[in-house]
Amino acid sequence: MFDSNFINYNTDQIVNDLKIKGYFVFEQALNEEYVDELLREIDFEKLLVNTNDVGVVIASDIKFLTHCLANSKKAYDIITSRKVLDICKKYFNEDYKLTNHRVYKTTKKGHMPWHTDNNLQYEKQLSAKHNMPGLLFLFYLSDVTTNAFQLVKNSQTWSRQYQHEIYLSDSFIENNYSQDILTLPMKKGSVVICDIHTVHRAEPFKDKDYTRYTLLFQVDQVGSEYVGHGEKNLVNTEYLDNLTPELIDYLGFGFKRDYPAFPNSSIATMKISEFWNLQKHLLFQTFQTLSKNLAITLLPGGVIINIKRIMWNIKSIRSKNK
Ligand SMILES: O=C(O)CCC(=O)C(=O)O
Ligand SMILES: [Fe+2]
């Protein structure tokens, strides 16, 4: 999974960078094949519509697999890896928890505001900023040329002055901190870890041929006064081959979670083109379902059972001959 250079990179040094500079960057921390396999686990073409599973949703130009702990063993293994846990263990002074996670695919365009990730939520809304320590882990799952992660160096030391703001305006950052902006175009597999109080964003872009894949997760030192802080972690029990008391705590077993999954999605958050594709698919499915229902209504039950038997036999002969 991880490149041996990343595994062997001194964890104390990583934590030191995080405490002093507020961020740590490592190019190609994940092996290329591992990233390819992870992306093969996720079908970004299939959107959830009355599907009895976790899966992909769309919010304007970004497709999200929020519940990747339930849908991608490779993502689960990164999020619960020894290296990540060691960084957290050394960085935090008290109990820490995974508060959100997602894999997403960005295409065509985006304009994310400058922001920090120390958010408290009430229902779907950001309600306030908090002071708990926290770390953001962001892995590039494709080569990132444009739309790179950007951060304002040292902003973790002053962002608390703007706790009353939801975002910081582009002009405010450009006018006051343009020399402190660090832009991080990097190869597939690279990782950025940063203090959640750091002002950051994905660089705005417009390019109809560009696609970026990302794995993001956040770990906060959730104090007892913030019970309920975080999104729910839906985990596929099949993946839990490494359960320890440490992991049980990190994944928040038995810990209340009040926030809805990010992003908030519905038919209304789909793009017209996706919506149109869905309509075409639905039309086809409607005809299929109608004709099936008509056959079921018209034919006697015994005949239907015989048809099912014959179909099953044909299929099983075919699969034996393969
Ligand atoms: O995708 C990125 O580069 C940044 C994402 C981010 O900051 C967020 O989702 O809060
Ligand atoms: Fe963020």
TrEMBL record:
SUPFAM superfamilies: Clavaminate synthase-like (SSF51197)
A GO molecular-function descriptor: 2-oxoglutarate-dependent dioxygenase activity
One Pfam assignment: PhyH
InterPro entries: Phytyl_CoA_dOase-like
Domain of life according to the entry: Bacteria
Protein name (Swiss-Prot/TrEMBL): Phytanoyl-CoA dioxygenase
